[in-house]
Predict the structure.
Amino acid sequence: GSLFTRLRDGLELPVRLWLINEDGRPRFTGKGRIPDLDQPSSGSAKIDVYRWAMERYLQPGRCHPDMAAYYIDAFWLQAARQGSPDLHTLSNHDYFIANAAFFFDLSAWADEAPNDDPLQVLGADRDMLLRILRRLNALGGERVLKIGGFTPWPFKYTDARGVGGRHGGVPTEWEFSRLISEHNAYVEADAAGLSSMANASFHRHYPLADHHPQPNPRTSFEDWQAKGLVNTNGVVVPRLYIGHYVGDYDAPAWLYKAVPAFFQDPARGTVPLGWAFNPNLADRAPQALVYSRRHATTNDFFIAGDSGAGYLNPRALTIRRDSDLPSGLMAWVTHNQRYFAQWDLDITGFVLDGAGGASTGLEYAAYARFSPGGLGTHFEEGPALHGGVPTCPEQDLPDAVDAAAERLAAYGRKHADGPAFFWARSILKSPTWYRDVSDRLRSRHPELDFEVVAPCTFFGLIRLTLERTPTEGGIR
């Protein structure tokens, strides 16, 4: 009654390739020689399968040269109770199968064996991951590579409950991101939580225009003066300015589910919000991006999220500990220019440096070519100007409304001489939550002079302040 039996016997479909022996025994055992290859086994059935698959499929014309997929393998069947039922992410595969992408599921760590293959030679998973990344780069030219998926942290490679590793989920994410960034790749991070989506191979055909303008015009100096943000002398009025980075939408799966939920919220439009929708999500969820703009209020603004048109570590495009590739920074610029032009973007809400190292003037100069309106940064001390591009470090708000309001109030008190700028990052929060944070801040701290502003206003005021009163350490 299995699907295999029904296809073979019922529809009389021939078996074109056996991945197990016909009697049901494994073909790949981690012993002897690797099937079909004149190579000795690595001692790991898992690694042998990848060596076999590399030689068969990571060849010119055999798989997509600019795309790969990083989703949990059949190990999920042994650990399904460690997460919600949809974390198998099988429904995400269709887009990558339609594009003939190469699939893999390997650990980024070299200092411990993965829990799905504990007897392998130490570092074998990581070594195979690097081999795959190098081969993928050999298949393409000077471009960036899309990798769909995310570290399966509830099940593998981390210290999550029931997994048994020594590395936390975030460090594991960061190490994987550093390694792929060093090989000119970004991840579309279908991370655990809202990780599953379906039918992207169909949705990708949604017709898009060559240019999708912002639904609201960018604010100007005259607008700032009219709203009392800039005085008659052209100076930014001292107060706490709050800009909301509404994230983290570097994954089509998260966008796919969040837009239908949050864009029905009646509180949307009460507070200016910077929806951080990475523009490359249009490849798998174009209808969600179009819907969000078509139904935007006058307080809905759209920016790019994690690192721009894809999540990677910009510094790792040049400084490479585990890759001998030349710099991929200009390929990243070219990649982003196309998406930013199509979706009328000029702000990147979070340049996610992670384990790749803090961005420098080199990276900021590259971002100036497609994101001149502003950058949310990772490791800077305060707002700054880099070649005319205003930047501000992102600061995470607590999940609870009261705690978020208190965090903002404490910052305002600390920088009461103003103007002060708080680029607030929150994850998967509803418009109601943002409204409630503002209401709570206003009711509990009536002495605090603050203004929640649109992203373009937020970074524009930083630029105006620093151009008039430049300081070595920036402003707060």
The mean pLDDT is 96. The longest strand covers residues 240-249. Residues 7 and 175 are 41 Å apart (CA to CA).
